[in-house]
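In response to the reviewer comment on reproducibility (Comment 2.3), we provide here a single inverse folding case reported in full, input and output, so that an independent group could reproduce the run without further information from us. The structure tokens appear first.
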């Protein structure tokens, strides 16, 4: 499972919902999973006009205008 870090500021209820958000690593259509698996960053400059699912927990509660997902890599291995 791929989890979401809790570095953003939300109220307690929203924080809990986002912290519990997980994506099965076999869902290669998910951008978070793709970045972990490939080790390559992805940038979506305009979330509203993108093909991202608008009902995604992170988009609903985070309300980002743009998204930049980068892998956490150490010793040539993608950790998350």
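Designed residues, in position order:
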């Amino acid at each position: 499972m791929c989890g979401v870090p809790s570095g953003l500021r939300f109220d307690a209820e929203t924080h809990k919902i986002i912290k519990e958000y997980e994506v099965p690593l076999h869902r290669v259509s998910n951008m978070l999973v793709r970045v972990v698996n490939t080790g390559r960053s992805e940038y979506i400059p305009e979330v509203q006009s993108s093909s991202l699912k608008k009902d995604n927990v992170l988009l609903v509660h985070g309300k980002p205008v743009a998204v930049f997902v980068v892998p956490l890599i150490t010793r040539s291995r993608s950790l998350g």
